[in-house]
Each structure stands twice: as structure tokens, then as C-alpha cells.
Amino acid sequence: MFRTGPPILTVTVLRKFSSALILLWVAFGLVACGGFLPKSSDSRHNQPLPSAVQSALRSMGSSPGEAMVVRIFKQEKTLEVWKKTSGGYKMFKTYEICAFSGELGPKVKEGDRQSPEGFYTITPGLLNPKSNYYLAFNTGFPNKFDRAHNRTGSDLMVHGDCSSRGCYAMTDNGIAEIYALARETFKGGNKSFQLQIFPFKLTAANLAKQAANQHLSFWKDIKEGYDLFDLTKAPPAWDVCEGQYIFNAAGGGALNPMGPCPAVVQVAGMAEKLAAEDAAFVTAVDSEAQKASRIAAEAERLAASEVAAKERGQAISGFIGGLGSVFGGGKDEDVVAVMTGKPSPTPMPRLQR
User: Fold this and answer.
1) Residue boundaries of the structural domains of the chain
2) Which residue numbers delimit the L,D-TPase catalytic domain (predicted)?
3) How far, in Å, CA of 198 to CA of 245, rounded?
4) Would you call 98 a catalytic residue per the annotation?
């Protein structure tokens, strides 16, 4: 006798399995063409990089598995991804930040709704594949510097969506690509990547505009790391000593965050760059002061002009009023006659009804 039950069940299972494979193939095909998996998909964290992104990486002499650096600029509302090439790190792509919370300046305490600033190290354990905001990675706040200054806060993320309570929201599309780049970097054998978060591009001119800001000393502290990356096109090693960031410290081992700082490894051209930046900052501050002085002087001139105009108006009004009193009670037509030398026009008689 032939058994018909099991074969029918097997065919049914195969059909369901085949349908699932087809759906998965279609989904990943859409991703490869530039689409992305919906939030309801449990595979959204594994979606491959779009073919266009992979091609762009090859064109710049890099690959998905190469090391990367992420830089965030609050004021410009941009997130940059830099990838390692044979000629150093090169900027691969800029993503618009959809939302961040707070003002320019670092996060200080839990609940202040400030987005953090500083240097952070992102490891695979900080990736969140099941984020309520599509996908995310934790910034690692508070880091060693933050803890040394008793700064508090938790779950400060770079995530999808477009709302923020101390995080950086990149939209679902944006974080899908950024997350995939991070994942592939780790798959390539890199144990971490550096996240640099700045209030704005730390140029001397931009810092001069914030010369009176309470966070100026902190921004000048992290500017050294900013300048090192700009000069060498490689992420500087960072640590904390004497309550400040230190970059490319000589020797090995972790430093006491409040202990004395060691010497730093000298980078060719860095001393000259720092001296030039300091001089440019002084010049820019002086220029900003002169600009503020000119604005204040112009405002004072305009205010004086308005006062003078008001006084002239009052004088003319008083003069005309005086003439009116001289000519019998201050009738307007008498004043006009005196001022013009012509008799006032005779008013039209009213019709008698």
C-alpha cells in the first residue's frame, strides 16, 4: 500500500518554505537596489549595504570591511562617515541629522535633554539591532572624561526616526545605511570605531564667535583632537588626565583621569598648526570685538537720530501751536495764512434745510 499522508504534508511544508524564501529573496533584492526593510522585519539589522554604496566605497579605494570614523556636527546638523583607504581616511558620505535635542554644549546630567559632545569608542556591543527607533548604536556616554566630571546620563543613541531626547535621530533610511556600515566594519575585523561629536566645525573663526560661551575651554580641549584628525587623516588615540582630554599620549596603559598628564607623541606639523590656530583665534576674537563695537556704535547713532527726529517734531509742533495762540485762539486757517502769505479759503456755506 502506498501512504499518501506524509507526502502531502511534505509538499505543503515545502511550498511554505519556498514562499518564505521567495519573500526573503525579494526583500533582500529590494535592499540591494536601494530600498530597506520595514521596522516590522526581524532581519533589518542584517540587510546588506545597497550595491550603490558598495560601488562608491570601491571607487574611493575602500571597502565595507575597512575601518571607519564617524563625526557629528551639531550646528551644521550633519553626520560624516569616513573610511580608511591606502592614503589615509577619506570622507565617504555626509548624512543630515533629522533631530537632536538641547543646545550647543556637552551633556552634563541625566534629564537635561542635551546631546553629548566629545570623543567616544564604539564597539559591537553598543549596536542595538532591535531598537524602537528602527536601528541604533549607543554613543558610549558617559565616557571616561564624562565620568571624571560626574556627568550622568544613559542610552544616548544615534538612531532612526526624527525625534530626540538627548540622542541624534537620523531617520530610518539614514540609520539603516549607517548601521550597515558599522556592522560591516566590525565584520572586517575592526574591534571598534571612533565617534567624534562637536558643537560645530572647530575653526578659529567659529570658536571666536563663541568666545564668551561657558563651554569655550571644553571646546578648545577637544579641538586638539579635531586638528589632529584634520592634519593626519587618522583618528587620534585619546585618554583623560588632569580632567582633560589628551591625544596620542606617550607610553602605554590607561591614565588616571585626574592624575598628571604624560608627554604626547609629536606629530609632524602639529605644533605649527596649533600655533597658527591660536593666532587665528586671537585675530578672529579681535575681529568679532571690532564688529560688535561697530554694531553698538551704529545702534547708538540710530537711537540718537531717532531722538533728534522726535525732538525736531516736537519743536515744529510747538512752534505752530505758538503761532496759533498769537493769531486769535490758534485757528489752523489763521496759521496757514501767516505761514503762506495767502488768505485762507472761504469755507462753503451750509445749505439751509
Assistant:
1) 46-204
2) 68-198
3) 14
4) no
Q: Which CATH number fits domain 46-204: 2.40.440.10, 3.40.50.720, 2.60.40.1220, 3.90.79.10?
A: 2.40.440.10
Burial 202-233 (b: 16+ CB within 10 A, else e): bbbebbbebeeeeeeebbebbbbbbbbbebbb
Q: Is residue 149 annotated as part of the catalytic site, yes or no?
A: no
**What DSSP character marks residue 106?**
-
Q: Are 185 and 66 in contact (CB under 8 A)?
A: yes
Strand order in the sheet with 157-159: 99-100, 168-169, 157-159, 136-138, 127-128
- Spot the catalytic one: 149, 159, 162, 241: 159
Per-residue pLDDT of the chain (353 residues; tens, 9 = 90+): 444 444 444 444 445 444 444 444 434 444 433 456 888 888 999 999 999 999 999 999 999 999 999 999 999 999 999 999 999 999 999 999 999 999 999 999 999 999 999 999 999 999 999 999 999 999 999 999 999 999 999 999 999 999 999 999 999 999 999 999 999 999 999 999 999 999 999 999 999 999 999 999 999 999 999 999 999 999 999 999 999 999 999 988 899 999 999 999 999 999 999 899 999 999 999 887 777 667 777 777 777 777 777 877 777 677 666 655 655 555 555 544 544 555 555 555 544 54
- pTM equals 0.75
C-alpha to C-alpha distance for 95 and 174, rounded to whole angstroms: 7
- H or E element that contains 239: strand 238-241
135's CB contacts (< 8 A; 6+ apart) are 44, 45, 128, 129, 159, 160, 172, 175, 176, 179
Dihedral of the CA atoms 248, 72, 115, 172 (nearest 10)? -140
